[in-house]
Write a structure and sequence with these properties.
heterodimer; A: globular; B: mainly alpha
């Protein structure tokens, strides 16, 4: 017995040596550890959230009472455009990618993502594209035509300055990151699961990221094509959207929303994956109707591609077209409904424990149902045509997006903080923070339903007294600052708990997924052995966790010969090969830097220099591929 | 039936790089789907297509060129088999053949576009815009294939490793995709004359 224990300790020590990364600036730039990259995603995305929040508070202050002059119309246009762009592209998507990066490999019992260096690349490009877009504020040239950037307003006739070039090029740049991340998630989820985790035992969070990533693969090209066409029109005189020369402005709207509506699900699906993860833990039972929830997740992603025209009901399209999309928009409520019922049934038939993460999740269900109900109202064409472009729409999409994504993100912050840092957050501060957050949210956005029905159009920079909107706007502004206070409390809680929180131990919540089967924070190699999986709730199978210990003592599935992790088959998760994973590499950073230089030169219209700088991109790619895994 | 009694028959599983390439292809296919949808969207908004007295595209040369490009899938396929069998000479020769024919195709394609540009340009009208955007996007993908191919040739100069075999498989997959795309793009471009 003692001898095998010593052997086990030696194996762990060998893994430590193999996977350890030295400290220092060089490692900072070259690391490919999915946990470090995941943390970076979380911190960076949260910084963008703070910026978007500052923009929102400025707008709410401006709208607090009629006739305010805090900012002018030009600044206001930039504020609401950048608020939307930031929340959607620079906060929610990367934040959820951050959780995905950190937790997908842990949940499936892998030691890294399928393409670790590409993972680092995704992060560096996200950072570069974020800086790229925000640098526009330095020149007071931030995108100013809304996050959906309709032509003809955004063409070079009506917006001759570089605002929209920042938008087009910034989004094209960012798309590389998002697409690479999606490829990485799909291959990781399909190919890197621990042996035994067949596809019908996969955590629902992974199902959600799979559906999201597939949506990214098929939806983002429509945005990229639209960005390219608009940039060609702005810089080189092409005519895609120019009526006089046979183009059509509605083409932009179609392309944008072919991307834009699936993007709603790209934002929302990972968030409900978080919900499906947290609910079983705090209901002390497996999720009800696992298969139905998984299928509903996938079909939401799929049907999401068939509803884009409901963003265009007021553009004079043929009635038949609109009815088709109206029906499709009603259809998509079915999978959402299935999930809401499955969650509710899980809570009702379980023994719910109301800790902070669960509060955010329950808050999410309430808020999301409200947003869902107004969503069904929009699917009715006549209603949509009445309230389109009013504050009712603003209320609706904040209920579904802030409610549907930010509530789950805050749930996830409280839920996974112990795993990432090894310490618990303060429960009391968490609960107080939640209630301020919840009240603040509803106080901000519920009155917008009313001001919208009273006719207040969205995107106005100010309004006159006597239209009956004053009190609702004031309430919204008070709500916005209340919400900000709630968020501040969460940040304070995080900062205090980082060093002062009580130690969490490996599994403070008694959860069912594999990330809780290792220490908090996890070691560089994630698991000392490839975990045993024989059910959809592997961490609730104590026999399998004992089996892990036996494996470590016997030296099977330890993979301590190199930087290794197993690859398994797509459906059954049978072992198929052992992969030698790459370690630190400077090339992802170099490539992202080269791309930043390329896009910057393109932005300032030095096309020749941009072409020359593409040599740097190729050089970085060659350097990247110069080293190969030493396989025979 | 016990688990041991089940006989598992399956193909050799694909490496992760192959999956990555497949997904890149999926997203590229969507990009071209969007461009082709744009072509027909603009077309159905207009009475005359091509508009503004632009002549209908001529059929013969583009079709012959496309046929030649599609033919390069044969040496690419042989190259994969050769890599699998470890026959470096055969692999190298076939990659080089595909590269040479692809380069030739690109040369003639550029010539075709240059001649067209004397008649109409992307700035003439929306037809010209989408015509050249589709053609150049396609040519850029052929060019990317040529670069990948040249890079493979330099890599396997000395030795074929498992990693490089995966590289050959992934590049070949991309190559076949670009060739299939060529057919769709050329049929779209030529559709006014078909």
């Amino acid at each position: 017995m003692a001898a095998t224990d010593i052997a086990a300790a030696e194996r762990v020590e060998r893994l430590e040596r193999l996977w350890a990364e030295p400290h220092g600036l060089w490692t900072f730039l070259t690391t490919v550890d999915h946990k470090k990259i995941g943390k970076r995603y979380l911190v960076t995305a949260f910084a963008f959230f703070v910026l978007a929040g500052a923009e929102a508070l400025t707008m709410r202050t401006q709208l607090a009472q009629p006739g305010e002059r805090l900012v002018g119309p030009k600044e206001f246009n930039q504020l609401f455009s950048m608020h939307g762009i930031t929340m959607i592209f620079l906060f929610v998507t990367p934040m959820l990618s951050g959780f995905g990066n950190y937790f997908v490999p842990l949940m499936i019992g892998a030691r890294d993502m399928a393409f670790p260096r590409m993972n680092a690349l995704s992060y560096w490009i996200f950072l570069g594209a974020g800086f790229f877009m925000y640098s526009s504020f330095l020149f007071q040239l931030a995108p100013n035509d809304g996050w959906f950037n309709y032509v003809p307003l955004s063409d070079s006739v009506f917006t001759p300055e570089r605002n929209i070039d920042f938008y087009n090029l910034g989004l094209l740049f960012l798309t590389i990151s998002t697409t690479a991340g999606a490829v990485n998630f799909i291959v990781t989820i399909l190919r890197m699961r621990a042996p035994g985790m067949s596809i019908n035992r996969m955590p629902l969070f992974c199902w959600a990221l799979l559906a999201t990533s597939l949506s990214v693969i098929f939806a983002l090209p429509a945005l990229s094509a639209a960005n390219i066409m608009l940039e060609l029109q702005r810089k080189f005189g092409f005519h895609f959207f120019d009526v006089k020369k046979g183009g059509d402005p509605l083409l932009w709207q179609h392309l944008f929303w072919i991307f834009g509506h699936p993007d709603v699900y790209i934002i929302f699906l990972p968030a409900i994956g978080i919900v499906s993860t947290i609910i079983p833990t705090f209901s002390r039972r497996p999720v009800v109707a696992y298969t139905w929830v998984a299928l509903a997740t996938m079909s939401t992603g799929f049907i999401g591609f068939g509803v884009w025209v409901h963003h265009m009901f007021a553009t004079g399209l043929p009635q038949v077209t609109m009815i088709f999309y109206s029906a499709a928009s009603m259809l998509i409520t079915i999978p959402s409904g299935v999930q809401v019922f499955a969650w509710t049934a899980t809570v009702l038939t379980g023994r719910p424990v109301l800790r902070t993460p669960m509060l955010y999740v329950l808050g999410f269900i309430v808020v999301f149902v409200v947003g869902g109900v107004t969503g069904v109202m929009f699917a009715a064409i006549p209603f949509d045509q009445q309230v389109t472009d009013s504050y009712f729409v603003v209320a609706h999409f904040h209920y579904v997006l802030f409610g549907g994504a930010v509530f789950p993100i805050f749930a996830a912050i409280h839920y996974w903080f112990p795993k990432i840092t090894g310490r618990m957050m303060s429960e009391r501060l968490g609960v107080v923070g939640f209630w301020i957050f919840f009240v603040g949210f509803n106080l901000t956005f519920f009155p917008m339903h009313i001001s919208g029905l009273l006719g207040m159009p969205r995107r106005v920079w100010t309004y006159e007294h006597g239209l009956g909107w004053d009190v609702y706007n004031l309430l919204s502004t008070i709500g916005a600052f209340t919400l900000a206070l709630g968020i501040l409390l969460v940040v304070v809680n995080v900062l205090l708990s980082l060093s002062g929180g009580p130690l969490a131990g490996p599994d403070p919540w008694g959860a069912n997924t594999l990330e809780w089967a290792t220490t908090s924070p996890p070691p560089d190699y994630n698991f000392p052995v490839v975990p045993t999986v024989r059910s959809a709730n592997p961490n609730w199978d104590p026999a399998d966790r004992l089996e892990d210990e036996r494996r470590l003592r016997e030296g099977s599935y330890v993979l301590d010969d190199g930087h290794e992790t197993p690859a398994t088959t797509v459906l059954d998760a049978d072992v198929d090969r052992v992969l030698a994973m790459p370690s630190e590499s400077p090339w992802p950073f170099a490539l992202a830097l080269a791309l930043t230089i390329f896009f910057t030169l393109f932005l300032v219209a030095h096309f020749v220099f941009a072409a020359i700088s593409s040599v740097l991109i190729f050089a970085a790619l060659l350097g990247w591929h110069a080293t190969e895994p030493q396989q025979s | 039936m016990t688990e041991q009694a089940i006989v598992v028959v399956r193909e050799e599983p694909r490496p992760n790089g192959w999956w990555g390439m497949l997904l890149l292809i999926a997203t590229e296919a969507s990009l071209f789907g969007t461009l082709i949808a744009t072509y027909f969207y603009l077309r159905f908004e207009t009475v005359a297509w091509p508009p503004d007295g632009i002549a209908e595209p001529k059929l013969l040369r583009p079709l012959v060129l496309t046929a030649i490009l599609v033919f390069t899938s044969v040496p690419m396929w042989v190259a994969v088999q050769a890599a699998r069998l470890g026959r470096r000479g055969l692999l190298w020769a076939n990659l080089l053949a595909a590269l040479a024919i692809g380069a030739l195709y690109l040369w003639f394609q550029a010539d075709l576009l240059r001649k067209n540009a004397l008649l109409f340009t992307p700035r003439t009208d929306a037809y010209g815009s989408i015509y050249y955007t589709l053609q150049v996007a396609h040519a850029a993908h052929v060019f990317a294939g040529l670069l990948l191919n040249a890079w493979l040739l330099s890599k396997i100069w000395r030795r074929v490793t498992v990693c490089r075999l995966f590289g050959v498989q992934a590049v070949a997959l991309y190559w076949h995709f670009v060739n299939a795309l060529a057919v769709v793009v050329v049929l779209t471009i030529l559709s006014p004359s078909l």
